[in-house]
Amino acid sequence: MKRFRPGLVPTLVVAVLLPLMIVLGCWQLSRGAEKTALLHTYAERRTAEPMASNALPGLEDPAFRRVRLHGQFDAAHSLLLDNRQRGGKVGVELLQPFQDQATGLWILVNRGWLPWPDRRTPPQFTTPELAVSLDAWVYVPPGATFQLHADPNSATWPQLVTAIEPARLWATLEREGFAHELRAESGAVTYQADWPVVAMGPKKHLAYAVQWFAMAIALLGLYLYLGWHNAKEKHHGSGHESTQHV
After folding, report:
1. Quick one: 106 exposed, middle or buried, by C-beta within 10 A (0-12, 13-18, 19+)?
2. Domain locations in the chain as residue ranges
């Protein structure tokens, strides 16, 4: 049987890269399973009847729950969530504090997407002056990244931000508020109210997992080939040297 001689450097490379590729592939499969469960929960809860606003503070698992609200917007503290795209067009999402009349609770309501083609002029929007009724659903972000948040101490409103943190906003404004954003369903007070549930679907994660596993197999195959090839070359070289000495 041929001896296996892959060499030190290829062995070290494979020892580092092969486990890493396998771990990344398994992680993508895990993320895909999480996204599948998330989409299932979303589909199930979005078809349910909206609950009363007084049930909102006591929810242990509020994600995607529909809620019926009646109250008034606070136009003085509007937030513009930047870097949002719809149909290849750039824009922002408009979020405003909303005080529910039934509970007195403050809620940060996302009124939808606005186009912002020219950065030299601010996005244009209007805010209802009287109390309104609307249905909305709770949005709980699936993960956290490093982003800029609102600065409630700023004297300039509306504020342009790249992430939303309602609990921090309420603490600074000294208001009792709900800890998550609510996304308004399409209606008279909304703009373009369509949001993707997840930025990357389960199929995309599966495709990435397949790629990582394929790369791991290819790396292992190359490693085995080099090991046997080097052993074969060394064996032939030794045979030739023996012939020369006879």
Report:
1. buried
2. 8-37+202-245, 49-184
